[in-house]
Amino acid sequence: MNSATRDTGSPTDWFFEDFAVDQVFHTPGRTITEADIVSFAGWSWDTNPVHTDAVHSASGRFGQPIAHGLLGLSVALGLVSRLGVFERCSIALLGIDGWRFEHPVVVGDTVRCTLRITGTRATSNGKAGILDRELTLTNQDDTVVQRGNIGLTVARRPS
């Protein structure tokens, strides 16, 4: 089964049994704003000038302020949440593996996320399932800005 053969339907429709290896999902886009970066800096306490000082950043490597790497990761997870397919079945994130920040995200970038299921297996007690998921965050130019793997424990379909 892949994203082309099944509509995402409502969040209540999806459980472990509905996912398959190589299944791909594409999220809608979201434009990163200056307010996003300022807000993230405020609540994370990460006020590094590379993110918050336009004058300092203008003479830096990227020529302008860049979004926090973890802001990009957070947006990727939020975009995946908007798919609706994990809303009812999610139990817990298992970890973030091999996450790479490949290209800066800047104000005005519109990012979207592609999620591919790379593995499925039942938990040892069989009461839940584990999805291995590869996430790729790209900008409006299809440049990969971030990527990595995020495992998720999900509920099995009730009998």
Automatic annotation (TrEMBL):
<protein>
    <submittedName>
        <fullName>MaoC/PaaZ C-terminal domain-containing protein</fullName>
    </submittedName>
</protein>
<feature type="domain" description="MaoC-like">
    <location>
        <begin position="21"/>
        <end position="133"/>
    </location>
</feature>
<dbReference type="InterPro" id="IPR002539">
    <property type="entry name" value="MaoC-like_dom"/>
</dbReference>
<dbReference type="InterPro" id="IPR029069">
    <property type="entry name" value="HotDog_dom_sf"/>
</dbReference>
<comment type="similarity">
    <text>Belongs to the enoyl-CoA hydratase/isomerase family.</text>
</comment>
<dbReference type="InterPro" id="IPR052342">
    <property type="entry name" value="MCH/BMMD"/>
</dbReference>
<dbReference type="Pfam" id="PF01575">
    <property type="entry name" value="MaoC_dehydratas"/>
</dbReference>
